[in-house]
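FORM 12-B: Structure-to-Sequence Request
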């Protein structure tokens, strides 16, 4: 499993960094707007363009004249922090204004980072690219690319260019779990601060392995802890709590957002901890949405369950089920990390979720299930023709992916896709993992071809036409 690269967007104010950020993260727009830890002056998002998956960081504009004034000191510090976190830097400049002194100053600052840098010349609309790029070669960067972020021009080509020019990265330096057993089940514990993540880690391990942190931003990196239970290898990943964005104000805490997202990406199973006393809050929903979009197996732990009255427990469970209908495949388990109630059962559901995420089935079995689903509930009619789903096969694991082939599959409504997902979930026993269903329309091999009639067919056709013309005359 390869990790995603991180791209930092750096440049002067108003060169189009945020516009490019929105283009790159179009598949994760909600996450960009709502996830905890993202502020107006610095934002993190996820992007997927063709086969390239990446993480992108938007930064505030840098100016040499204002770098030592008030809030601009913090903005510059955050931009430099983003540069430190990044694998590659997109240095944005404005094609309309050409090279300005601030660009020269930023270029000098970025060279000291010793990171791969691509000079992105934005706002190229209506201009000769060769002439514009020639001016920016004076900044001394070997990699230049022209785009128009406002219109989406050149964005896909820019990402292809970045991945092609990026040196091979050492995964061992970035992914600590690779130094552990390759067969270990990687389990990330995530949630808001003070919901009991570190306490749960200690309870699962049976020792005080990690310190329970109360101060935000204290833990900068995710902690990877390998251990063995009943001859089975696990790697627990303790992550920093992700708070509501209005309460995040330190560079270290913002840096932990990247680390937590990376921990989710590297995990096989994610345990999402929710405070039972507070119930499901908006921040929990945003984080759960990211986990599902990442395709990770999921177990939800309702922590701090002890001490609640029976009536209150019933209300909490009902509220959780109501608000988490989009994650109904996940097991919701009441636990108490402090006292150990229900914690032992987590291993069972971790193993179940991991097995479901890696499930494999042959084409015959999956196609039979598809036929059963279609027989029970036919696809709708589109433009007078019934959508036909012919066969299906497994397209991947982690998460399980089923590819359905047929005709007019591009018109399959969302409701019917959801029906198929629920059907396959039940039949394949995929409790604990999201399921993806993809559709492919087969090409008509006879499209554009005209059948050549034999002499006998031509004779029959002439007789039929004479009969039709004779009937019309009688009328």
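FORM 12-B RESPONSE
SEQUENCE OUT:
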């Amino acid at each position: 499993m390869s990790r995603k690269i991180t791209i930092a967007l750096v440049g002067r104010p108003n060169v189009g960094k945020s516009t490019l950020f929105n283009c790159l993260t179009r598949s994760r727009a909600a996450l960009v707007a709502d996830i905890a830890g993202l502020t107006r002056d610095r934002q993190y998002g996820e992007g997927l363009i063709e086969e390239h998956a990446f993480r992108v960081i938007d930064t505030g504009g840098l100016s040499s004249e204002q770098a030592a004034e008030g809030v601009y000191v913090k903005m510059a510090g955050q931009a430099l922090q983003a540069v430190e976190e990044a694998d590659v830097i997109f240095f944005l400049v404005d094609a309309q204004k050409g090279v300005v002194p601030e660009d020269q100053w930023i270029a000098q600052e970025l060279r000291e980072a010793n990171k791969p840098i691509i000079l992105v010349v934005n706002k190229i609309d209506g201009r000769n690219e060769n002439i514009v790029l020639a001016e920016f070669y004076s900044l001394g960067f070997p990699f230049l690319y022209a785009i128009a972020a406002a219109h989406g021009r050149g964005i896909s080509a820019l990402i292809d260019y970045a991945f092609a020019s990026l040196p091979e990265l050492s995964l061992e330096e970035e992914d600590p779990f690779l130094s552990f057993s390759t067969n270990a089940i990687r389990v990330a514990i995530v949630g808001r601060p003070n919901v009991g993540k570190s306490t749960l880690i200690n309870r699962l391990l049976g020792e005080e392995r990690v310190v329970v942190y109360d101060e935000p931003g204290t833990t900068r990196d995710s902690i990877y802890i390998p251990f063995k239970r009943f001859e089975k290898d696990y790697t627990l990943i303790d992550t920093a709590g992700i708070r509501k964005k209005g309460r995040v104000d330190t560079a270290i805490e913002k840096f932990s957002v990247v680390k937590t997202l990376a921990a989710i990406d590297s995990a096989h199973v994610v345990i999402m901890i929710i405070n039972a006393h507070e119930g499901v809050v908006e921040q929990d929903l945003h984080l759960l949405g990211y986990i599902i979009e990442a395709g990770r197996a999921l177990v939800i732990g309702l922590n701090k369950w002890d001490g609640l009255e029976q009536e209150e427990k019933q209300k909490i469970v009902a509220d959780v089920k109501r608000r988490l209908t989009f994650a109904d495949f996940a097991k919701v388990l009441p636990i108490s990390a402090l006292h150990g109630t229900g914690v032992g059962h987590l291993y069972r559901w971790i193993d179940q979720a991991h097995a479901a995420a890696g499930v494999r089935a042959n084409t015959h079995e999956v196609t039979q299930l598809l036929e059963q689903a279609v027989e029970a509930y036919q696809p709708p009619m589109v433009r007078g023709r019934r959508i036909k789903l012919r066969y299906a096969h497994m397209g991947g694991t982690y998460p399980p992916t089923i590819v359905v082939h047929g005709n007019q599959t591009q018109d399959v409504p969302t409701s019917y896709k959801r029906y198929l997902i629920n059907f396959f979930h039940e039949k394949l026993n995929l409790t604990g993992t999201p399921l993806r269903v993809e559709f492919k329309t087969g090409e008509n091999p006879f499209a554009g071809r005209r059948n050549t009639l034999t002499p006998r067919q031509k004779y029959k056709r002439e007789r039929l036409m004479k009969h039709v013309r004779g009937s019309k005359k009688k009328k």
